[in-house]
Amino acid sequence: MRQNVLRPGLLVDINDLPLNRVEDLPEGGLRIGALARMSDVAQAAGVVQRFPVISQALLLGASAQLRNMASMGGNLCQRVRCSYFRDATSPCNKRDPGSGCAALDGFNRGHAILGTSDKCIATHPSDVAVALVAMDAVVHTRGPADDRAIPIEEFFLLPGDTPEREHPLEHGELIVAIEVPATPTARLSIYLKFRDRESYEFALVSVAAAVRIQDGAIADVRLALGGVGTKPWRARRAEASLVGKLAGEASFAEAAGQELAAAKPRPLNAFKVELAQRAIIRALMTLTNGDTR
Amino acid sequence: MQITMTVNGVSHTRDVEARLLLIHFLRDELRLTGSHWGCDTSNCGACVVWLDETPVKSCTVLAAMADGRRVRTVEDLARGGRLDPVQQGFAECHGLQCGFCTPGMMMTARWLLDHHPDPSVAEIREALSGQLCRCTGYENIVRSVRWASEHEAAQPAGGDGGTGRQAGER
Q1: Residue A23 pLDDT > 50, yes or no?
Q2: Which residues of B touch A15 (CB under 8 A)?
């Protein structure tokens, strides 16, 4: 707003709503209130113990001073954006539909390689959303007419021809909670983030990974990527390739290659194709006590 | 709208516009100009104050959101005419050049030392990573916080912060 990117006619402060609790559900899942602060969720015992990937992703996002204020619902609703979106003098289909995309042939080193369209290649900025996508979270909303439970993958829309629309919320509809279902796979989980600085920087590539091994073979695996997609990217091709295989660098590399085969890089962000594959391999090797290099 | 908040232990009631940011409330209404208004986009951290017990960027907080809460600013660090060890550390180790980022640096550093009295250099860097110093004087800022940590360890709770100048210098 202060940079003239958005000019809403009306703002409503919802911070007094009683939506800031982080609850352990009886069967082992989580219910995270939409107004729970990122810093509180990161430290909640049930999150740290049962969903380490969520806690790690939170602590690698933004900076402490921002996490102390930022809410979980706000995190999911933050704009998918790039420097051209924020520069009100550049064409941007997201800010001004139909005006064009300055990033396509601009400085697009940080931009997306998965889920892009010829209208927008901005990267989804959230870390914790990547972990939540890997964990099959469900976004609970309340609208003027009814309540909805939206699987988190459907909560984020691909840009397609309408990059200005990023989620399926209707007018007057509000996130009230994020539920994370119980899964034994979550206990062995990790969030790795690769970026230009150690801290206070968006991901070039990040990986949320969880794996459950049974009799040496992969019984269940969850993989999601940040920094490379126009939405938090669930790596379903890689997952499908891994289930039933023996855990090891060969199967991990095969799976990573299958996922990134769909990548559409631009000249400046082509390095992300290989970086993402290496990140997947490293995350899975780390989880399975392989060589992490 | 009318709001009441406790700033540095003193209760203040004012009529403010709903859109007024906390940083402007502190600086323009209360004339507490120690907190600095920097980037205005929650990047730089010059405006960091404590809201209740946690450091926040006061340009991301509406004054109305602080209604009924406690705020602590850099003006509250020195007590009884005596500088806080963090302030002494900045003085001893040349932790400021232009000084613009200093109030935010100090409020985050104070919180860090209250919760982690003996932080490593890596922990200090992580804690301060939301604070930008455009003079790029980070090396001395980290040294200043270490100085304060070592000085506090030598002079626990409420001790005289004005002596032992050489402690921790390295």
Answers
A1: yes
A2: 65
Which range marks the domain in which residue A275 is found? 185-287
What is the interface pTM, i.e. ipTM, of the complex?
0.83
pLDDT digits (tens, 9 = 90+) for A33-62: 999 999 999 999 999 999 999 999 999 999
**Domain-located, residue A53:** no
Of the pLDDT bands very low, low, confident and very high (cuts 50, 70, 90), residue B69 is very high
Q: In this predicted model, what pLDDT tens digit does every residue of A93-105 receive, in sequence order?
A: 999 999 999 999 9
Count up the domains in chain A and report the number: 1
pLDDT at residue B45, as a whole number: 96
Q: Residue B55: its chain A contacts at CB < 8 A?
A: 64-65, 68
Q: Are strands B70-72 and B2-7 parallel, antiparallel or unpaired?
A: parallel
> CATH no. for residue A206?
3.30.390.50
Q: What pLDDT does residue A289 have?
A: 84
DSSP of A29-61: -EEEETT-BHHHHHH-HHHHHH-HHHHHHHHTS
List all residues of chain A from 60 to 119 with a beta carbon under 8 Å from chain B.
Answer: 62-66, 68-69
What domains appear along chain B, each with residue ranges and CATH number? 2-74 (3.10.20.30), 85-153 (1.10.150.120)
Question: CB neighbours of B112 closer than 8 A, spacing ≥ 6?
Answer: B119, B123, B124, B127, B128, B145
CB contact under 8 A, A64 and B108: yes
pLDDT of residue B168: 35
Q: Residue A254 falls within a domain, yes or no? A: yes
Strands (E), A84-173: 138-142, 147-151
